[in-house]
Design a protein that fits this description.
By secondary structure, the protein is of the alpha/beta class. The protein has one domain (about 10-95, about 110-185, about 230-250): Rossmann fold (3-Layer(aba) Sandwich), CATH 3.40.50.720. It has 8 helices and 7 strands. The protein has helices at about 20-30, 40-55, 70-80, 105-135, 155-175, 190-195, 210-220, 230-240, and strands at about 10-15, 35-40, 60, 85-90, 135-140, 180-185, 250-255. It has a 7-stranded parallel sheet, sandwiched between helices. Helix 1 runs parallel beside helix 2 (about 40-55), helix 3 (about 70-80) runs parallel beside helix 4 and helix 4 (about 105-135) packs parallel to helix 5. About 50% of the residues are buried. Bound molecules: nicotinamide-adenine-dinucleotide.
């Protein structure tokens, strides 16, 4: 612990999930107070409880990122608990791993609304609070799909490419107010997103990394020779959120073991 985020106040969406949970815990270890926000309240509560048990400061909040009224409530809860928001981590995302032919209109809307519209609404919700704090950092979750779309799920490709544009737009709009915006793009990260069978990210045997063939395929596509774990990505979020990242805005940090090469 080196207090790299001492005095910071973060909202972490998808905070009950693999990568959001790791960010919440890592940020708290470095002195930030955390609002762990997730549509799955019990998952958010587990992460918040763990942080508090370890001596950190956290609250859990039920948030569907598609709902601007719920966003206003999350910001209010965070301000009431810890003061103005300095950091937003937009992790919440969805994917349905099917071909272009098979992607339904409903799947498309779900992917775009959770991943892209949710991040847009989050930025709009926190900016007023960041102004009160004298500045802030918005960290958007990218993907390999933010660099190259791959073979499947056009909705996911559009969402993650869209995140690059959203990041640049926010960075350009708010830099004069000391608000930075960065996109961080992982490769293959061992989380329920690619291992489990969740409503926001269904996996069949063909797409889950529980399937050794699929695991090996992803491993073979990772030059550094291992899949990422959530802390690999949380450490990059931590760097970008800290004052060490104070001259970084509008850009992408890849943490993918070389997968995008
Ligand atoms: N795991 C990977 O290999 C990988 C790689 C690149 C990018 N990503 C991205 O990382 C992000 C987080 O994924 P993860 O791997 O931690 O997955 P995860 O499934 O462990 O976590 C996702 C979390 O988001 C929450 N969520 C879903 N819909 C929501 C909504 N409408 N509002 C609020 N919260 C919602 C879920 O409840 C869950 O806790 C996603 O944006 C995903 O696209 C994942």
């Amino acid at each position: 612990m080196t207090d790299r985020l001492k005095g910071k106040v973060a909202i972490v969406t998808g905070g009950g999930g693999g990568m959001g949970g790791a960010q919440a815990r890592r940020f708290a270890e470095e002195g930030s107070s955390i609002c762990v926000a997730d549509v799955n309240l019990s998952a958010a509560e587990s992460v918040a409880q763990m942080i508090v048990q370890n001596g950190g400061h956290a609250v859990a909040c039920e948030l569907d990122v598609r709902d601007s009224t719920a966003w206003a409530g999350a910001v209010q809860m965070t301000e009431d608990s810890f003061g103005p928001v300095t950091t937003l981590c937009n992790n919440a995302g969805a994917n349905f791993r099917v071909s272009f032919d098979d992607q339904t209109e409903e799947q498309w809307h779900t992917i775009i609304e959770i991943g892209l519209t949710g991040a847009f609404l989050g930025i709009k919700a926190v900016v007023q609070s960041m102004r009160k704090a004298g500045g802030g950092v918005i960290l958007n979750m990218g993907s390999l799909a933010s660099i190259r779309p791959g073979g499947g799920s056009p909705g996911y490709a559009a969402q993650k490419m869209g995140m690059v544009g959203l990041t640049r737009a926010a960075a350009a709009s708010y830099s004069k107010e000391n608000i930075r915006c960065v996109i961080i793009s992982p490769g293959h990260v061992d989380t329920p997103f690619i291992r489990g069978d969740n409503s926001h990210s269904p996996n069949s045997w063909a797409t889950s990394i529980d399937n050794p063939d699929n695991y090996e395929r992803r491993l073979a596509g990772t030059p550094l020779g291992r899949l990422q774990v959530p802390d690999d990505i949380a450490n990059a979020f931590l760097f970008a959120a800290s004052d060490e990242g104070s001259m970084i805005t509008g850009s992408m940090i890849t943490v993918d073991g070389g997968s995008a090469l």
